[in-house]
Write a structure and sequence with these properties.
By secondary structure, the chain is an alpha+beta fold. It has five helices and four strands. Strands 2-3-1-4 form a four-stranded antiparallel β-sheet, with helices on one face. The longest helix has 20 residues. The protein is flat and about 100 Å long. The model has no long low-confidence stretch (mean pLDDT 87).
Length: 188
């Protein structure tokens, strides 16, 4: 092919000119440029809290009833439920050929119509799964105590949130605060 273009310089110049014109023409089409393209959610999450419920109670009292209420809906590819202590969660994968908001409304209607959930169960939370991607990770470390590093990380998070254009900053890999009460044995 290179040999053919070497013998036909006019064709090579026409190809180059065509590529340049197409490249410049694409600038005028306003093709959106995104670092992270927006992804339409294709799954629904349902969570129900059952205070004091064992995983078995949560499964029989909540998870199975939720699954039965929505299992025959069109547009659902799969349902994965997880029953843990005090919490039932369903992850519903949607078919690509159906509108997610329409299926979300139908799932909400079916779950709100359930009257067989235990009375201790809180109201189900039904939502489309949201995707968020990390744009930047910042690690805070130094010769400080764990509490001082956490306080420094919290101040850094708060300062980042004050900047226009930054909408979300997550603090991760930190332990929850704990409280310890020590009593004098002689005063007890």
């Amino acid at each position: 092919m290179i040999e053919w273009f070497a013998r036909n310089p006019v064709a090579a110049n026409l190809l180059l000119a065509t590529l340049l014109i197409l490249g410049l023409g694409s600038l005028s089409l306003n093709i959106p440029l995104e670092v992270f393209p927006s992804i339409e959610p294709r799954s629904i999450t349902v969570t129900v809290s059952l205070r004091g419920g064992t995983p078995e109670e949560v499964e029989t009292g909540v998870s199975i009833k939720l699954e039965e209420a929505i299992e025959d809906l069109e547009g659902i590819d799969s349902i994965v439920s997880t029953s843990s202590e005090g919490l039932a969660s369903l992850y519903i994968e949607l078919d690509d050929n159906y509108e997610p908001n329409a299926i979300l409304a139908e799932v909400k209607n079916r779950i709100d119509a359930l009257n067989t959930l235990p009375s201790e169960a809180e109201r189900p939370v039904v939502s489309l799964t949201k995707y968020s991607r990390a744009v930047l990770s910042v690690a805070v470390s130094g010769p400080l105590s764990e509490l001082e590093i956490r306080q420094l990380a919290e101040r850094t998070r708060d300062q980042l949130l004050k900047i226009n254009g930054i909408t979300q900053v997550l603090l991760s890999a930190v332990r929850n605060y704990e409280m310890r009460i020590e009593l004098d044995q002689t005063q007890l």
